[in-house]
Amino acid sequence: MTIRPVAGRLGILTPGLGAVATTFIAGVESIRRGLSVPIGSLTQMATIRLGKRTDNRSPLLKDFVPLVNLDDIVFGAWDPIPDDAYTAAKKAGVLEERDLEPLKEFLSGIRPMPAVFDNHYVTRLHGTNVKTGKNKRDLAEQLRQDIRDFKKNNQCDRLVAVWCGSTEIFIKPSAVHQTIASFEKAMEENHEDIAPSMLYAWACIMEGVPYCNGAPNLAVDTLALIELANQKGIPISGKDFKTGQTWIKTVIAPGIKARMLGLKGWYSTNILGNRDGEVLDDPASFKTKEESKLSVLHTILQPELYPQLYKDFSHVVRINYYPPRGDNKEGWDNIDIVGWMNYPMQIKINFLCRDSILAAPIVLDLALFSDFAHRAGMKGIQEWLSFYYKSPMTAAGLQPEHDLFIQQTKLKNTLRHLMGEEQITHLGLEYYP
């Protein structure tokens, strides 16, 4: 397999310049200046075992795979609010002054391009930095021009886009999402089922830019855009960053299933006060997030295969907007499990997490891995990046894999395969005749 060289500058574009994007950008710049280390990033801190255990070959991922150096990254964004990255970061309240002030000049220089934004899809946000056009196709073409201009003005060799914007209202796939022709016709007709996030996805694919969907929005995971990505040879992935409570579920649920313990119910509730919390306070936007969160347990536990253990378990998810908490989300989980002779037990988790702190390294990894995939000639859905998503995209007819540890194995085995190394199966064939 031929992998194109990593040389040159990579532009990382984020639709959205709020808490997640500014924390990501500030973090990368902090690391570049030696002020912090990239905790939470597989591309920067994880190792990968190669060959047999006795070979003692475990290089860092970034030394094994030709990934872009952090010094060769430039940042761009769109946002309906005109604040530069420093002002947006201050308002988001994720990072403390001691971490932001040394980066003030750098962050102040990153100003968002006017966004494609419509209050119909995100009712709780209002912005003035918004594009206007004769129809949605026109708005998408303006995004394409933004992409071309950014690449030229910043002397980038390649670009990648990671959606860091808000959760839109729940939209079901319809006829307009089935083919490229129907999708583009719907853009021209301003069809209600064509949301802004879909316009970003279309524009990026048309401009040869890998696209990662960090929100639960129906966007790049439509038949039309999957077909377009395959036609254009563009890697796509999604959806919804797996950060706090759902990440915990993909750790705990496989453990319950591995021990063949039963599950009667899993109650989850969250409080958060950032922009995401405000958006999710709208029932239509929460519906989109709820669908993403609810799918995880059923897929991991497979009640159709284990009805005695998991049939009809109760799964409840709640998100409550609580402004004093800011970005420091708190999640409570009550898990009612069943053991030997049908005796009940409980697991209780109180996770006081920082949502954007967990999401920022995911943005970095998705950008670097998607750029690598593009240079390796991969296209369409990148299932090996499921590790990073609540609702991983899969090929038609397949159930997504949610078990975090299976996802991690798939990610590393994909990298081994692309780099010409044997996959690790842990079978230990050396012990068999």
Question: What does this entry look like structurally?
Answer:
This protein has 433 residues and is of the alpha/beta class. It folds into two domains: 295 residues, NAD(P)-binding Rossmann-like Domain (Rossmann fold, 3-Layer(aba) Sandwich), CATH 3.40.50.720; 108 residues, Dihydrodipicolinate Reductase, domain 2 (2-Layer Sandwich). Strands 2-1-3-4-5-10 form a six-stranded parallel β-sheet, with helices on both faces. A four-stranded mixed β-sheet has the order 7-6-8-9. A hairpin with a 5-residue loop joins strand 8 and strand 9. Helix 1 crosses helix 4, helix 7 crosses helix 8 and helix 9 packs parallel to helix 10.
What's the alpha carbon Rg, rounded to whole Å?
Answer: 22 Å
Query: How far from one another are the termini?
Result: 33 Å
As for the number of domains, it is 2
- Name the overall outline: globular
Strand order of the largest sheet: 2-1-3-4-5-10
